[in-house]
Amino acid sequence: MEFLYDILLDNGFKYKARGDESLALKTGDYCIIRKDFFLDYGQIVSASRTPYDPETALKEIHHSGPPSEKKAEIPRIQRKATMVDQSKANENVMRSKSALRTTAQYIEKLKLPMKLINAHYAFDGKLLAIQFSAEGRVDFRELVKQLSSAFNTRIELRQIGVRDETAIVGGLSICGRKFCCCSFLTEFASINVKMAKEQDLSLTPSTISGMCGRLKCCLKYEHEGYLELEKTMPRRGDCCECKEGRGRIIDRNLLTQNVVVQLDDTGRTVSCSKDDVNVVYPEKYRNSRNAGRKDENDATSEDLAKLAKLED
């Protein structure tokens, strides 16, 4: 029986491969993988013991894999890597660094708007995969011809997005932990500004964008929880009654389920639980509830223009 495994290459690229049960593979093992016309060397980062199903596995690659692999078969793990294999893989790492410097010279000569990320040599040297990022589409056909002639091997250029680049480079977020994209987050979901607004976050671009320059990934996987918390919470601007008197809600905290009320008679602000306030709508408040009021989390037109560029 064969099982599916997640393989990590030295350049940070990941893909799934199938391996026979007799190999006794486990997380952390290095192995040799047969992939199309070449052999690859990588580390197993997830051994889920999921039985290999050709139809299911191919559908997954068709949806998430790069263009070069969308029509390819699932790679197969041939064997565990030996000490000799590891030595050869280390040599390939050094070769890839040299190839990256050479590629940078060709890019400068051709004046292409590309930012090189890394390079990866296949285990048997039959393929050199180079990852880069760019603002838009880049015509690199001439570059491929020159690199193929220079390295005498097949060249594959992969353009990756800024999120993928950040996941490869890595770093620490403002929360003090490793970036989600390079620790546990394996797939990037679509994120929009509405998610931030529904979580009562400030819509300042510098606050809700990550190091990659896009909206933070955590806006997505916390979104459903905030929507559930928001169901029973009063909104900002609501007229309410509490034990201190009548006033208007000027702030709220979805996580603590507390609200801040500004009293009508004294102008004093008090903090209390949402369960201790009763939302009411007298006629004078119903007509002017939203008139002339600006939510403190609303963004300016300039911020909205910047935020539109951060969405996926």
Gist of the model:
This protein is of the alpha+beta class and 312 residues long.
Total beta strand runs: 13
Look at the structure and give the mean pLDDT.
Answer: 83
| Poorly predicted tracts of residues | 62-71
Helix content: 25-40%
Structural class: alpha+beta
Strand order of the largest sheet: 2-1-4-3-5
Straight-line distance between termini? 40 Å
Count of DSSP helices?
10
Largest sheet: 5 strands, antiparallel
What's the assembly state of these chains? single chain
Secondary-structure element order, as H and E?
EEEEHEHEEHEHHHHHEEEEEHH
Q: Strand fraction band? A: 25-35%
Rg, rounded, reads: 27 Å
Global shape: elongated
Can you tell me about this structure?
The protein is of the alpha+beta class and 312 residues long. The longest helix is centred in the first third of the chain and has 28 residues, at 83-110. Among the domains are: 2-81, no CATH class; 86-160, GMP Synthetase, Chain A, domain 3 (2-Layer Sandwich), CATH 3.30.300.20; 237-288, Roll (SH3 type barrels), CATH 2.30.30. It has ten helices and 13 strands. Helix 2 packs across helix 3 (141-151). The model is unreliable at 62-71 (pLDDT under 50). A hairpin with a 2-residue loop joins strand 3 and strand 4. The protein is elongated and about 80 Å long. A five-stranded antiparallel β-sheet has the order 2-1-4-3-5. It has a five-stranded antiparallel β-sheet with strand order 12-11-10-9-13, with no helix packed on it. Strands 6-7-8 form a three-stranded mixed β-sheet, with helices on both faces. It has helices at 54-64, 83-110, 141-151, 162-169, 193-198, 205-208, 218-221, 223-230, 283-288, 301-310, and strands at residues 2-8, 14-20, 30-35, 38-51, 76-80, 115-121, 127-133, 154-159, 239-242, 245-253, 258-263, 269-273, 278-279.
